[in-house]
Amino acid sequence: MQFILNDELIDDNTLPSDFTALRYLREKRGLTGTKEGCASGDCGACTLLVGALENGELTYSTLNSCITPVQSLSGKHVVSVEYLSKVNELHPAQQAMVESHGSQCGFCTPGFVLSLAGLYENKQNADQPIDREAVCDAISGNLCRCTGYRPIIEAGLSMIKVQEAKETPFIELMSKNEGIKSLLENLQAETNAKSNYLQPINLEQLAQALTSNPGATLIAGGTDLMLENTQRYRDFDTLIDVSSVVELKALDIGAITLTIGASVTYSELEDFSKLLYPQIHGLLSRIASRQIRNRGTIGGNVANASPIADLPPLLLAFDADIQLLKTDGSTRTVNINDFYQGYKQTQLAKDEMIASFDLPLDKLAQFHRFYKVSKRMEDDISSVMLAVRFDVDNGKLSDVRLAFGGMAATPIRGLKAESALTGKAINDEQALNQAIEALRGELTPMSDMRASAKYRLDMASNLIRKAWLELNGTEVVTFSGHAVSDSILSTGSEGSTHA
Questions:
Q1: Any idea which of 158-162, 245-249, 385-389 has the lowest mean pLDDT?
Q2: Is the distance from CB of 224 to CB of 300 less than 8 angstroms?
Q3: What is the signed CA dihedral for 445, 447, 452, 455, rounded to 10 degrees?
Q4: Which of 58, 296, 373, 410 could form an SS bridge with 223, CB 3.0 to 4.6 Å?
Q5: Which pLDDT score is estimated for 296?
Q6: How far apart are CA 212 and CA 194, in angstroms?
Q7: Which tens digit of pLDDT belongs to each residue from 398-429?
Q8: Contact in structure between 220 and 300 (CB atoms under 8 Å)
Q9: What is the tens place of the pLDDT at every residue in 136-169?
């Protein structure tokens, strides 16, 4: 394992496969500015900046070091909070936090500072303004129990002014560091065989890794898998990291389908869909936090088979096909409607993994909406998730999809409600009421800490009505860029947001 930690070359092949980046910094390097708050990727106290070469340029993103195996950072530039300041000079993010009084106890502060520093560096490099939306997105995965967020947001908004007020301009740490770029180019050129953490870059290498290590565990983003290590103290022997397998990173618009590789991250799909599919982009911006979206993968979200995962209802709405890959290289196709067999049970065989998803372009072109109801706008789990697709032909609904998450042991469709609307005029309110009545008869939601069964059923019914209103051109009242019914806000914190 070789990577650059701040400005130092690290070469270490002695670590267990599941040794986290957080533990490495604190226990092996004495870099204790990085904190452990939750050990589950929820609080952001352990945030790091990680740079990678993409098309010859350095790009940086944040991640949660508490659930990131340090060996997954091989070939990367890892930036901890200690690296931000220079001699007698604070980074603009640090200086802005000081001037805005953005810290009290200070435990969460290093994570906030690194999230803001990443925003500053990336925006400066792209010559883009830093507005409130950008600041809130950057710190969406950082929790503070002391100050509230007003002074922290003010610090983020004032970073540029802090920079401009300096007599000598602050030189960006990362985006203009040719020395780091040169070191990473040399690291990427090296092939270093690992006995317990394998990082294949193509399907051929992946097949070899699987053949040589039949008992190994597959890992992509690891945002859920690593909770087994940090929360349940499970030790992993050999891990095979599929996040860099080029064939699993496909994100292509073909003749009839949009293909999304299983190792595509939430952030990558979010960037891709911003202009092409704004409704998908809007949903992705509500999933977990920026740190989690930078590592979590589409395939992992689906294969994990969690009933509250946000992407399976989307795939159900578009009638997506899942391409499964066997260790011998053969493939088979399973429709998303047939993939889930029960709670945490799927059609995946022991010798299979998800390779990609195919979404029909004609269905993507039809009216669709995604509604996520949660107690917090960001970094929270769905109480109710609804994905809707209406195909309209000559003023009638020729095809209807109503797919729900957070309602049962698996993602489900409201089949009777769909039937009640199919073939009816788009403005037929009687048909809508019949569909809602049918839905109430066919769904038996669960009750848990997030919502009662009655709340879930009432909300599901109201969300169908909302989609119908939007289909018919009714403008829905919005709040902070999101529909009011999309989110129930509170200051509480609960559970992992990326299962």
A1: 158-162
A2: yes
A3: -10
A4: 296
A5: 96
A6: 12
A7: 999 999 999 989 999 999 999 999 999 999 99
A8: yes
A9: 999 999 999 888 899 999 999 999 888 887 766 6
Q: What three-state secondary structure class fits 450?
A: coil
Structure tokens at 126: 């792209």
Angstrom distance (rounded) from CA 21 to CA 41: 12
Cβ(411)–Cβ(340) below 8 Å: yes
Which phi and psi angles does 41 have, rounded to 5°? 80, 20
Helix (H) or strand (E) holding 74: none
Range 188-208 burial, b when 16+ CB lie within 10 A, else e: eeeeeebebbbbbeebebbbe
C-alpha distances out from residue 80 to 6, 29, 50, 308, Å:
7, 11, 9, 33
Which amino acid type is present at position 396? K
Q: Are 47 and 104 in contact (CB under 8 A)?
A: no
Percent of the chain with pLDDT over 90: 76
Phi, psi of 59 (to 5 degrees): -125, 145
CA gyration radius for the chain?
A: 23
For the whole prediction, is pTM greater than 0.85?
yes
Give the separation between CA 246 and CA 73, rounded to whole angstroms. Answer: 17
Q: What is the mean pLDDT of residues 131-137?
A: 94
The pair of three-digit structure tokens given for residue 363, joined into one six-digit string: 């269905």
The residues, ordered by sequence, that sit 6+ positions from 194 with a Cβ below 8 Å of its Cβ are 1, 13, 71
